Amino acid sequence: MKLDVIKLDGAKSGTVDLGDEIFGLEPRADILHRVVRWQRNKAQAGTHKVKTRSETSYSTKKIYRQKGTGGARHGDRNAPIFRKGGIYKGPTPRSHAHELTKKFRQLGLRHALSAKARAGELVVLEAAELAEAKTALLAKSVKNLGWKRVLIIDGAEVNENFARAARNIEGLDVLPSMGANVYDILRRDTLVLTKAGVEALEARLK
């Protein structure tokens, strides 16, 4: 698959060949769903917590006499049946992560890249570099290119001036190639890969 390479000013800067084994697959929703679910579950904090009957703050004195009340025989105000008593089998801190093989995660990334290429939402940029870290200059270029919700994936490292300029632009995310992931790729309208990013992803996924 051939794509035009552009510069930040919108001018063309040649073409690039994209490998069909990474960018030319038929996207499968079930694979993408499994990888996104694995990502989101792994990121979930799991810090939810309720108090059990041993942790609520009430006296352990018997509430009322055992017999003669005409009611049930209770001995503890901490019981789950009472208001403000302990919660029975409530949530406790735990990890929500589950296993997914490295091979399957790589397959998911290939399908995410292929989905963007097939939808025409993949752009190849010559280089994500700026001479000075000026947000206004980058914001103007992004507006002229028509990018609104965009993810830019660079090579092994992101240019410091570019990263600082992009920091305050809403809807613009910048990641190094090792940070490329299925969830961030799918949630943005446009995926922009630098030439260095394309080389790094092809080396990582082949």
What do these coordinates show?
The structure is a single chain. By secondary structure, the chain is of the alpha/beta class. The protein folds into two domains: 2-45 and 97-205, Ribosomal protein L4/L1 (Ribosomal Protein L4, Chain: A), CATH 3.40.1370; 50-90, no CATH class. It is 34% helix and 14% strand. The chain has seven helices and six strands, in the order ββαααβαβαβαβα. The chain has helices spanning 20-23, 29-43, 102-118, 135-145, 160-166, 182-187, 195-205; strands at residues 2-6, 12-17, 122-125, 150-153, 172-175, 190-194. The chain has a six-stranded mixed sheet with strand order 2-1-3-6-4-5. Helix 5 links the parallel strand 4 (150-153) and strand 5 (172-175). The model has no long low-confidence stretch (mean pLDDT 93).
